[in-house]
Amino acid sequence: MTPTGPHQELEWNGASQGEGSFHRGPHLAHVRTVEGDRRSSVEPPVNDIRSRHLEQQRKDDFLSMASHELKTPITTLKAFLQLVSDGEGSEVLVNRSYLIKMADQVERLTRLVSDLLEVSKIQKGQIEFAHEPVAVDPLVREVVGEAQKKHPSHRFTLSGEADCILYGDRARIVQALTELLNNAVKFSPEEELIEVKVRCSGNEVQLSVQDHGIGMGQNEQERIFERYYRVLKDPGKPFPGLGVGLFIVSEIVRHHGGKVSVDSVAGEGSAFTLSLPVSPGPNT
Amino acid sequence: MNNAGNHKNSDIKILLVDDEPDLLGIVELVLVKKGFNVTAMQRPPSAEELLGIDPDVVFLDLLLKGQHGVDICQRIKSDPRSSHIPVVIVSAHTATEVKEACEACHADDFLTKPFDIHELGRKAEQYGLQHLLTRGKV
Fold first, then answer.
1. Do the chains contact at B26 and A80, CB–CB below 8 Å?
2. What is the number of helices (H) and of strands (E) in chain B?
3. Residue B117 and residue A79: Cβ atoms within 8 Å?
4. Is the ipTM value over 0.90, yes or no?
5. Which of A27, A267, B50, B97 sits at a 20 to 30 Å CA gap from A6?
6. What pTM value is reported for the model?
7. Tell me, what's the pLDDT at A159?
8. Does the beta-carbon distance from A72 to B29 stay under 8 Å?
9. CB-based contact (8 Å) between B6 and chain A?
């Protein structure tokens, strides 16, 4: 190729050089506009290409899965709205059970979109954490109370006390605990009891959520906090969701200088424990 | 709605298979409103159940609990007792992926989510009527 005028070339090492650089797509790395013969050829290292290819494959798989997850509630809502707008289903508008089902679909969509945005922010390092005193006991009571209202199918119990204050982002801690409670409901469809325990010991607050649901084996426990990892509901069919909820929890806890762990037995249930330092964490 | 001869939509028996209960419920309602005779299942039917229902068209979700829609479709199409039943695959996958799935299991057609309920109604009537005619029921 003879560079006789402005043209584009691929730059594999991702080092943007000068003005005119822009992203074309993740696997193509950077494409930059080059004037005249001011070019430099860059040979991509084989390992870089492989890892970029794997990363691209992972992103493609995620987009495909996310699109699939979004389409199911959209289909339900679209069918409902078409039925009503055609004037054939006016009775569904006054049937509370249909309206509740449609509200559930909107909630499902909202959660999916919110998770997508959260992951995007985490990847870009754009999540900001407040640094404020957080009273643990009222927070836990509030979250468990909300969960009980939201999931009447399950029975939440709360034991222990944590009459202590930690420093962090209250809204994010609420988000993490709520995610664990939602998760407990999701993975224990047949067992109603969900036990929440809280205690403050030394410089640490521990919040644990125990369900008596499907549990998981050692392999799944090792991967459960990975981004995009989803537990299989049946062979070849994962539980609904994007596989990012526990990843987000682990990121929130990490930013508070704490840790999250899981103890589970397949067929018997899982216990997730958040341990958060009472003193200010490293990133606060 | 009558499109051919003396048939009514209520003559057309439709089997819906989808493990998403809310979606299944609303699609069932849509087709019932259009006058079809609908059976809705959240799990794949056994061969005997299928023969008992004797549907004129099956709308089959591609991803079901425990079983892939392609396997179920193959089972329907490879059994001489049910191979004549039109199968429409329903999926949130891309059209290209669903076409491949249809070819793999000899399905008659497909619908991609989010589908239009009028398109659903058209396919129900088209394949249902076609089946009634081939079976000499109208």
1. yes
2. 5, 5
3. yes
4. no
5. A27
6. 0.70
7. 96
8. no
9. no
